[in-house]
Amino acid sequence: MPTETREKSHPICLWCGKPTSGDRKIHGVEHIFPKAIGGKKTLPVGSVCKTCNHELGKLDKFLKKEHPAMMDAFQVDPRVKGYTRGETDKKRKEKEKTVIEGVGEARHTKITREKRPDIEFLNANFAVTSETFVRALHKCVANVLCNKHGSMTTRRKFKDLLKFVKDGGDVLPWSYAVSFPNPFNRPLIEEPKCFLFSVNGEDQKIISFIHTSGIWIAGSHPFLLNPKVIEVVSETIAKKITHIKEPNTRKSITHFFGFDWSLSKDRVLIGALKFLWIVEEIEGKPNDEFLYLLTRCRFCGQTNPTGITLPREIIYTGNINNVVRYGNNTWNRYTREDLKKLGFKVEKWGNKSLERYMIQGVSIPKENDVKKLKIYNCTTACINCGNVIDFSANDCFL
């Protein structure tokens, strides 16, 4: 859609609101999607000033290298080596086609690809909620809206979105959803293909784009995504793209998305395209007097207190040489007294090593395994997304 008439003659920067000249030589161009992930199309000249283009351009590396799916897509995209800034940059990118290492939250992630289809993923977490990655993803959302409405209108209607991308802050309101492709059988998307949906009126938008790394969904306003919205978007996109054929196999492009990376064990994948909803988890506060009995929301992944608490002095009584271990979480941790009951001589430990051990997942005697409790057909509301969780003892943990 064309931008507003006034904006054509008086362009302003999307991010700072200062007047721009619209001169390509002065301001350059802002890509709607970063070149690092294959973006080609640019915003109208003058939509972003040179200073903001430079400063917010720093987010682009987090989009490329803080999510394993994006890192993997970077390796398989043959166009990437064309975007270089000299011989050093070219060599670096050629090396990353074989071994690419993450940054930020994904700093321990490494993807090695010697000969396809031989791929090794090391420490790959496909539910990234870091501030920098989520901001980078929503920067693309802002650019799509700017391209459609112009910088002036976007600044007026989407203030919360622009503030979050520019300044950062709480990630919880800015969730996203993604449908992953099969890493061994993926289509190459020439340019991210966008879909826009209106929610609760014209000014609230859901933006989805299809990329080699997956089909991504994000919102223009905080707390806009929920399972129902994601399901509707998924069904609509599936209908719109089912006729598009992948050039080599001639299969529908929908055939390539919905890979679950073994995340579906404890999570509901939403809609026809099997979207995974990624929401930052609300952290708990351990209590020294009792342990929280926990269960997990199958939609947003939040660890939830069930409303049932277990006395520490009872739960640790039993055979300490035959234990069941639970994963670490922010709701339950060891106390010094717990460790003493388990036979540890904590007075000989250093403070740092003691603290590290106390926050790992707790172990309790097997005869006290909470999955053996007589709990059937109970419900609780997720503290994160409000979903009603049905649970029995087998769904619980500490």
Quick synopsis:
The protein is α+β, with helices and mostly antiparallel strands and 398 residues long. It is built from 13 helices and 16 strands.
Question: Care to describe what's here?
Answer:
- With 398 residues, the chain is of the alpha+beta class.
- 27% of the residues lie in helices and 18% in strands.
- It is built from 13 helices and 16 strands.
- The strands form five sheets. Strands 4, 5, 6, 7, 8 and 9 form a six-stranded antiparallel beta sheet that branches. A three-stranded antiparallel beta sheet has the order 1-2-3, covered by helices on one side.
Chain-wise SSE layout:
Layout: H1 5-9, H2 24-27, H3 50-56, H4 60-65, H5 68-76, H6 87-96, E1 99-101, E2 110-112, E3 120-122, H7 131-149, H8 151-157, H9 159-167, E4 176-181, E5 193-198, E6 205-211, E7 214-219, H10 227-241, E8 257-259, E9 276-278, E10 290-296, E11 303-311, H11 312-315, E12 323-325, H12 336-341, H13 351-358, E13 363-365, E14 378-381, E15 388-391, E16 396-397
Q: Classify the beta-strand content into a percent band.
A: 15-25%
| Overall average residue pLDDT | 88
Biggest β-sheet, characterized?
Answer: 6 strands, antiparallel
Shape: elongated
Low-confidence stretches: 1-7
The number of helices is 13
Distance between the termini: 53 Å
Query: What's the domain count?
Result: 2
Rg (C-alpha, Å): 24 Å
Helicity level: 25-40%
The total of beta strands comes to 16
Category by helix and strand content: alpha+beta
SSE topology string: HHHHHHEEEHHHEEEEHEEEEHEHHEEEE
